[in-house]
TrEMBL record, chain A:
Identification of the protein by name: Tetratricopeptide repeat protein 8-like Protein
Classification via Gene3D superfamilies: Tetratricopeptide repeat domain (1.25.40.10)
SMART domains the UniProt entry points to: TPR
Biased composition, class Polar residues, residue ranges: 78-96
From TrEMBL, chain B:
InterPro entries (UniProt xref): PHTB1_GAE_dom, PHTB1_N_dom, PTHB1, PTHB1_CtH_dom, PTHB1_hp_dom, PTHB1_pf_dom
Domain PTHB1 platform: 506-608
Lineage, uppermost ranks: Eukaryota, Metazoa, Ecdysozoa, Arthropoda, Hexapoda
Organism: Tribolium castaneum
Protein name per its UniProtKB record: Protein PTHB1-like Protein
Domain called PTHB1 hairpin: residue spans: 613-714
Biological process annotations from GO: cilium assembly
């Protein structure tokens, strides 16, 4: 058989190594055989080809970057200022809302852009390409196939049959963006800017060189000439890098008009909304994806997670089971299934699922997450000791797990080891500045006699609400437990500990209370900003402290027993009955007071 | 990943040691009712199969109808009406140098096994060039006949009208031949080129060009009908016709997507694939195009236009596949693997649920497990739940450090000792258990230096000695002769621990005697309550006459000021005087130590002093340090700014260079050079300023040490003294974003608000909870002055009581403002005991 035919056949059968070998043999006898040269190039490229749309990293802003449009964008117009989530869906360590699947963008390790700039090489897209290039080069025995430095780029740019394979070879195999761009520039000139493909490639080069605006221009021009799904997605990515999610959404929608129900564009859109913290449209698009492509693991996992965080663990369970049925077999999946079972009361399955998850977890980070979730299992079983041990195990796998530190601290505090608790809170706060629970808890610990402790810890355990399982290669992960049940448990056990009350209120002069109010108002604003309901409690508390002794206004009961008890302990029961006579709904107050005393 | 699995009911392995390709399989009826499966290998073996029409029987040898060995490799198989005057269908086989047309003759016998199948060769066309592939069809709109078009490896199209050769022509710009199909509706050929375009040529144009070239001998140019820029490599081409509306679609399988084009080259739809496809087939069903795609990951995906309708797992990865009418069933999947395994399969609708491998779990003996659990619980409890284990308390028992400073100095020039004097130190490390890793670090204050500073021990189990030596590195005033040895290790419980030991260096390492000065600006007086001892007794290492009442020291390395120690015998006083307070500290410290040592067996001995260094001196030192620090920071900022500027200019330059129409650089290159030289200049300046800062830091440190030493001698409350000592932190660190002043100012305001509060107003000062950056040195100056005024005035007499009360964990003291503003963390331990107390109080009441 003719060697060239053999090589072509091997290429078709995706035996790229053998194909390259056959081509080398042809080239040895006929060094100027362009067909063999071209085929070898394509074989080598295909061998290392990685879908660069999927592997693209989510870019984080360089502070020297002059491409960003606004330095202080309005809420909702930027990924960074996306509307803060009110749901219980936790954030990743980089502060982005957690997603149902692991993608390059969701796997960033914490650390600011500033930190990353301090390394020798600034963050750039080409890093991965360079690595690919070196890897490819390493596997070649007799030196590189093409000496890029000796390449007459101008000549090849004019050869329409060779230029495109050569470009892909330079871009993907060699990772040599500069020469690839040189080729693209000359080739696009040669075809009088009529070939959209070259424009897209130029755009890719510009992105790799961090010249985003130029890339945008090229992509837009390419889209004007020719509609291609990939061009739409690339343009979307460019707008994401420019931190203009709204423009990105627009592009996606324009793409959907031309390619209705295209899975790639809809997935892109769903991810975008997810990043913007708008879960409802995100899930809507994921649902459309599933209608179009029922085998889309990403969409199924994301919908599953949406249900999980929407208090529908049974629904989530169905989705995750579907993923399992499709043949995914990973620690993340079992972990999520375990969580779903836990919250949908199928306790018999929970432990065995977690056992499987532990069995499969090899990556210490995943292992840590599984142990972390197991601690919630222990909590819901009421076994605090086991929970502490689970958290300790979690920390031994991943010593940077901030949520575990926080929860451990809360548990230790419950057991009365306050110093230890404080140390853990501090480390939790230091490990993840985005986490507000340890900060709030620390604040409460710092004002121990303000009636804070009890409710603080109440809240703290609410904060035990945890973060989800971290990403992994395939899909299906997500679930992080909320602590609905645990919270309830805690409520019942709280009555005693709220006795830690300030007794100083009646001795204060008016001025001092004024100061106090001021201080608490500050805190109030702070907590209100962090978006928690305790702001209201604080507000009433403050009002109560100001008003009760002097004005004779009884504390409002709705704000919780704490306030009331402060009042009570400050005045003693005599004054309480007195007040009860004065205040409008005294009857209820009296009843409450009896109840209160019974508790003591 | 998929829910379903393909079920195979008929399978045969064709041949060893041969390979098959995309075009090696043909499924055709060949004038019969059910399909023949025809396979041709690269080694030239042609096989015709026909699975028996019984219900899904497995392969039997009778299913193989014909096996012929052709000498040349078989590249492609196809069928059509190739025999003139016959309306029957024949088989065409492409080999590298020839095209053969065969007829399959079936002679029915009396019984089933009597059927004879004969493959009869009808005619052969020899080819000029090595063939690549071919396509068949009614070219030019002929009725009831099929013509053949063979594409050679270099792009020559050769046309055969049944038995006769028609013409040949070259396709333009062919580098590598691509798939070729004939579109009947537009009477044109569609193929791909290396430019990743789909191109279409009209048969009419090709035949005209072909006639010209055979007649005139010159190859005339012809242009394509249309072309479509696909932008990726092409794997396969297919043509689908809508049976009702007669519309034709061209399906293209690219390396990353599927495209559907109309027969005039307009995109109908495209779909990006998330996997690498191997091959596809298409057919038309219910007004929709169905595409079957096989992926590299062995999945068969069935698309209806763009939406996925079915996905099924294949157990093999077929190189070629087709639908066929086999076993009286329509739509059976015929799959050909690369190694020649031919199989007939159907889509299994029963989901093959994934069954996870069972975990290797043993049955538990509950009693045993329970015992083990309690045992483990005990261990865990001992390890984790004990706060004390985490603290550093019992470290001394695990590892003992002995530091001995040699009183005799050595002369050595090897180290960079300024005065050639080095003081050897030997450290004995005595572990009581085995430690895997122990790190010992020796710390001395600038300008002293220790070498080697750190030593690391592996698997330390017995007594080890580490030696190092201390020397003066820079000719500067020495602020302290203290040497700290820190050993850090992980205890056998896994808790990090550290042991610290301090020692004093000998005085003569840094000071030497000189002639005393009579008068000096700065004086410190030390009073003792015993009869004073002579200087010669205090400094025995310096030879002095016994009645000498004065001794003077100066730094061995620098222009440091002379410090004179005078003894006033009558008034039980020692006076130390020098021109600079910075130089005094060392001797004050030394004197106190020596005096205490000398009177160590006298009860009630005390040293007092009231000679507080003047505020101005301290303020001056702080100011120098502050300004140096500010300069340092501003230089840092400037360098950062210039660095950013440089990057911006570089960016700008790149932008300039890549513009298509080159413009002038607009002097950017000058700007670049200037910025660079500016950065270099600033860096040098920065270096200098850093030295300055270190010097000022050292001086400030000396003065602060003196201040603390004297405060120690003053008559102040022990607790308050500790607070003051920690407020005037003599170890000065200037960190990024927080300098010594920031910290000190915070502690000053704390002191002023609490222990040193003078009036109620002071107590109401707002608490400074965070360390703010000090912008104005006058504020800290004011605070310092206030503090220094209040310390000697006995302000502390009243206020410490406040503090003590607060410590008593008395519930009643809670109304004091002071307790509220205690430093963060100092009171946390109380809350639990308070909890108990208050609960007790409440129960009493109720």
């Amino acid at each position: 058989m003719d060697p060239l035919y053999l090589a072509l056949s091997l290429f078709r059968r995706r035996k790229f190594d053998k194909c390259a070998e056959v081509c080398s043999e042809i080239l040895e006898s006929q060094p100027l055989d362009q067909a063999a040269w071209c085929l070898k190039m394509r074989a080598l490229t295909q061998r290392v080809y990685v879908d660069d749309i999927e592997s693209e990293d989510l870019y984080e802003g360089d502070f020297l970057d002059d491409n960003a449009v606004a330095t202080a964008p309005r809420p909702g117009t930027s990924i960074k200022t996306a509307a803060p989530t009110t749901s219980v869906r936790p954030n990743t360590s980089t502060g982005r809302p957690i997603s149902g699947v692991a993608r390059p963008g969701t796997q960033l390790r914490p650390g600011s852009a500033l930190d990353r700039l301090k390394t020798a090489r600034p963050a750039s897209q080409s890093a991965r390409a360079i690595r690919l290039g070196t890897a490819a080069m390493y596997s070649q025995k007799e030196g590189p196939f093409i000496q890029v430095s000796r390449l007459n780029i101008a000549k090849y740019a004019k050869n329409s049959g060779l230029s495109k394979p050569l470009f892909e070879y330079l871009f993907y195999h060699e990772g040599d963006v500069r020469n690839a761009m040189e080729l693209a520039v000359q080739a696009t000139q040669f075809c009088r800017f009529e070939d959209w493909w070259w424009k897209v490639q130029l755009g890719k080069c510009y992105i790799a060189l961090n010249l985003i605006r130029d890339a945008e221009q090229q992509m837009r021009s390419a889209l004007k000439q020719h509609h291609h799904v990939e061009s739409f997605i690339r343009l979307t990515r460019i707008y994401l890098r420019l931190d203009q999610p709204l423009s990105a959404v627009e592009i996606c929608k324009a793409g959907l008009e031309i390619f209705p129900n295209d899975v790639s564009i809809m997935t892109e859109l769903a991810r975008l909304y997810e990043n913007l913290n708008e879960t409802a449209p995100s899930v809507k698009f994921y649902r459309s994806v599933v209608i179009e492509d029922a085998m889309n693991t990403e969409a199924i996992a994301c919908i599953g997670m949406y249900h999980f965080y929407n208090n529908q663990p049974e629904m989530a369970l169905r989705y995750y089971r579907r993923v399992l049925a499709m043949g995914a077999h990973s620690a993340e999946l079992y972990n999520n299934l375990g969580l779903c079972c836990l919250y949908s009361q199928q306790l018999d399955l929970t432990t065995s699922l977690f056992q499987r998850a532990l069995d499969l977890a090899i990556d210490p980070l995943i292992k840590a997450e599984v142990w972390y979730n197991l601690s919630h299992l222990a909590l819901s079983a009421g076994d605090l000791e086991l929970a502490v041990q689970c958290l300790n195990l979690c920390l031994s796998s991943d010593s940077t797990h901030a949520s575990a530190f926080n929860n451990l601290a809360v548990l230790h505090h419950k057991m009365g080891r306050i110093n230890l608790a404080k140390a853990y809170f501090t480390s939790a706060a230091a490990l993840d500045p985005n986490l507000y629970e340890p900060k709030t808890n620390l604040e409460f610990l710092q004002i121990p006699r303000r009636g804070g402790t009890a409710s603080a810890l109440g809240r703290g355990t609410t904060k035990l609400a945890a973060r989800s399982v971290r990403p992994a290669a395939l899909a299906a992960r997500g679930g992080a437990p909320r602590t609905g049940r645990f919270r309830a448990q805690n409520r019942t056990g709280r009555a005693h500990s709220s006795d830690v009350l300030p007794r100083s209120v009646p001795d204060r002069s008016r001025v001092e209370i004024g100061n106090l109010v001021e201080e608490h108002l500050c805190r109030l604003i702070e907590t209100a900003l962090s978006g928690s309901a305790k702001a209201r409690v604080w507000c009433l508390w403050v009002l109560c402290v100001v008003n009760s002794p002097e004005l004779g206004i009884a504390p409002e009961w709705g704000c919780g027993g704490t306030v009331f008890r402060i009042f009570l302990s400050a005045h003693g029961e005599d004054s309480f009955t007195e007040r009860a006579l004065i205040c409008p709904n005294s009857k209820e107050l009296c009843q409450r007071s009896e109840h209160c005393f019974n508790l003591h | 990943m998929s829910l379903f699995k393909i079920r195979t009911f008929w399978s045969v392995h064709c041949e060893e040691d041969s390979s098959y390709d995309q075009n090696s399989l043909l499924v055709t009826k060949l004038n019969h009712e059910s399909d023949f499966l025809i396979v041709g290998s690269h080694s030239g073996i042609l096989k015709v199969f026909k699975p028996s029409s019984d219900n899904f029987k497995e392969y039997t040898p009778a299913d193989l109808l014909i096996e012929t060995i052709l000498k040349e490799p078989i590249l492609q198989l196809s069928c059509g009406r190739f025999l003139s005057g016959s309306s029957k269908v024949q088989l065409a086989v492409l080999q590298p140098k020839s095209l053969n047309v065969y007829d399959l003759i079936v002679k029915e016998g009396a019984t089933e096994h009597g059927v004879q199948n004969i493959l009869e060769q009808l005619y052969v066309h020899k080819l000029q060039k090595l063939a690549f592939n071919f396509c068949v069809g009614p070219f030019g709109g002929v009725e009831n006949r099929d013509f053949i078009c063979v594409q050679s490896l270099d792009g020559l199209l050769t046309f055969f009208e049944q038995e006769s050769f028609a013409f040949c022509c070259f396709l333009p710009d062919v580098l590598l031949p691509g798939p070729l199909t004939f579109v009947k509706s537009s009477d044109s050929f569609v193929t791909s080129n290396s430019n990743w375009h789909i191109i279409s040529f009209r048969y009419k144009l090709l035949s005209e060009a072909g006639q010209n070239s055979t007649e005139g001998g010159n190859v005339s140019k012809f242009s394509s009908d249309w072309s479509f820029n696909l932008g990726e490599g092409i794997i396969n081409l297919d043509v689908v016709q809508d049976t009702t509306s007669r519309i034709t679609f061209i399906m293209v399988l690219g390396e990353r997507s599927i495209f559907c084009l109309s027969d005039i080259g307009k995109l109908k739809y495209m779909k990006r694939l998330e996997f690498s496809p191997l091959n596809f087939i298409n057919y038309f069903l219910n007004d929709r195009i169905m595409s079957l795609v096989v992926s590299e990951t062995n999945n068969l995906l069935i698309y209806q236009n763009t939406s996925l309708k079915w996905c099924s797992q294949l157990h093999v990865s077929p190189i070629s596949f087709n639908r066929g009418f086999v076993c009286n069933t329509n739509g059976v999947l015929v799959l050909l693997q690369e190694d020649g395994t031919l199989s007939c399969s159907y889509l299994g609708t029963e989901p093959s649920l994934f069954v996870a491998p069972p975990l290797a779990l043993q049955d538990l003996d509950f009693e045993k497990a329970g015992q083990e659990l309690t045992k483990l619980h005990k261990i865990v409890k001992n390890t984790y739940s004990n706060d004390i284990k985490v603290t550093n308390a019992s470290t001394e028992r695990e590892l003992v450090l002995n530091v001995s400073v040699s009183p005799n100095l050595e002369e050595n020039t090897l180290h960079k000792a300024i005065n050639n004097k080095i003081c050897p130190i030997s450290i004995d490390i005595m572990p009581h258990t085995l430690f895997e890793e122990v790190q010992v670090t020796v710390v001395v204050d600038y300008p002293l230096k220790v070498s080697p500073q750190t030593e690391f021990f592996h698997n330390l189990s017995e007594k080890t000695t580490m030696t190092c030596c201390v020397f003066m590195e820079k000719p500067e005033e020495v602020s302290s002769l203290n040497v700290q040895v820190v050993a850090s290790f992980i205890s056998n419980l896994g808790v990090p621990r550290s042991v610290m030991k301090c020692a004093m260096l000998p005085l003569n390492l840094v000071l030497e005697t000189c002639a005393p000065c009579k008068e000096s600006e700065c004086k410190v007086t030390l009073n003792i309550n015993q009869s004073p001892v002579g200087l010669s007794a205090l400094f025995p290492e310096y030879i002095l006459s016994s009645n000498n009442n004065a001794i003077a020291f100066k730094n061995t390395a620098t222009d440091g000021k002379v410090v004179t120690v005078l003894l006033a015998k009558s008034s039980e006083r020692y006076r130390l005087q020098s021109d600079s307070f910075a130089s005094l500290n060392l001797l004050v410290e030394e004197m106190v130590i020596r005096l205490k040592k000398h009177y160590s067996n006298v009860d009630g001995f005390s040293i007092t002093s009231n000679s507080f260094p003047p505020v101005n001196t301290i303020v001056d030192c702080i100011k120098t340090h502050f300004y140096a620090q500010q300069k340092f920071v501003s230089l840092q900022n400037q360098i950062t700014q210039l660095g950013a500027q440089l990057r911006l200019i570089q960016k700008r330059l790149i932008a300039k260079f890549k513009i298509k129409n080159p413009t002038s650089l607009a002097n950017l290159e000058l700007l670049l050079g200037d910025t660079y030289s500016e950065i270099m200049k600033l860096t040098e300046e920065f270096d200098e300023e850093k030295n300055n800062l270190v010097k000022s830091r050292n001086k400030l440190s000396s003065v602060l040490q003196l201040l603390i030493n004297i405060t120690k001698l003053m008559d102040v409350n022990n607790k308050a003294r500790q607070l003051i000592e920690s407020a005037f932190n003599p170890v000065i660190y200037d960190l990024d974003g927080q300098s010594w002043e920031d910290i000190t100012d915070a502690s000053f305001s704390y002191l002023l608000r609490t222990v040193l509060a003078k009036s109620e107003k002071d107590k109401l000062r707002p608490a400074q909870t965070n360390f703010e950056e000090v912008k104005d040195v006058s504020k800290i100056e004011k605070h310092l002055t206030l503090i220094l005024e209040r310390i000697p005035k006995g302000m502390l007499q009243e206020s410490p009581s406040l503090l003590d009360e607060a410590e008593q964990e008395n519930v009643d003291t809670e109304d004091n403002n002071v307790t509220e503003s205690l430093p963060i963390g100092s009171k946390i331990g109380e809350s639990s005991s308070q909890l108990l107390l208050s609960r007790r109080g409440l129960t009493k009441k109720s």
